[in-house]
Amino acid sequence: MKKSLVLLALASLFIGTTSCRKKDEPKPVVPVLPNTTDNTADATTIKNSQAVFTVPAGSIVYISPKKGLNILGATMDKSDSTKFTVGSNGLLGINGNVDILTVQSDDATEIALTKSSPMLKRLRILSKSRSASATKTTFNLSGATELEGLLISGYTTDILDLTKQTKLRYLALGGFNWKNYNFVEMTKFLGSPNEMSTDIEEVKLPANNVIEYVAGRTPFQNGKFDIDNLPRLKKFFWQSPAFANLTFAKSQNLEILFANAPSGGVKLNVDLGNKPKLQDITLYNATLSKLAVSNTTAANLLKDSSAPAEVVELDNIDPAQAISYIKRTAGTTTKSITLKNMSLTEAQILDLISGLGATNGTLKVKADLLTTAVKAALTAKGWTGSSL
Hints:
With 388 residues, the protein is an alpha/beta fold. The protein is 16% helix and 32% strand.
């Protein structure tokens, strides 16, 4: 009986050890094979691909990564495995399960990702040249619902519908090498293309979007890019904005705002309101109709801003930042200044006044700061003081 129990225990131990060994064994790695092509696929087959590009026959399209994809309707270059020549039917299809897809074409007139692509997290679609030769390109990204990052640059299009991209966190529309401006997060996730000519008339965002990082260079007009509906936004970098309002009504997590060189002589309305997490506002090569921000005491908030504002309203920000910004930028532009909830001294106010131009402006501060010396300095500049 004892011998039977010993044998049973040994058998159980062996089975348990074998079972544990099986659980601990690493799963076999499925190799990712180099990209394949089928230049004989018919139009119907190509149109059923996960990504479909309508491109003139004989055009060149660059595609990466070099592994994990099946490209239909094109021939791979013998010396460059990212270079493809489109076949006679003018369609190119891409299938595969990859995390990131980059496609460069100067000639695409239609770009459609309407089939499910569950693995695709990052999509980069760029012209090869500074701007596409195609007069206009249409986009349909309705199947790319798992995207976390999207870069489109170098194209002209009427509407970019992103209402299906509810998981999108990184959005880049147009390129201007934001790596040079220390936009680390965007550079790591989507790269940093050189300055490119991009003209997107309107972008539609998901109502409950989760976008955190935005970069761009495309001439949206007012109301064509709803930056007031970016509740998760942390960093916003834009070159040559044609839209005036940089207000970010729902962006309470905003940390960095960068904008420069607005197009068409647009005056920027930077009416930010309460932004407790804001660390850096960098605005230059621009004129502001208004700069208003409150409740952020970052020590370098306006250190790199050189754009003057006609109206300045600063409430509970670092006093040194307020004085320094106004003194070096006001000149002949600033006409109204309001400073609230800051521990300011007479000396600081006099220092600020030294940078004012003769614009018949008004300075609004606490009554006890409107000393005889301050009033005299304001009068000498053609300004008046008003108590809050």
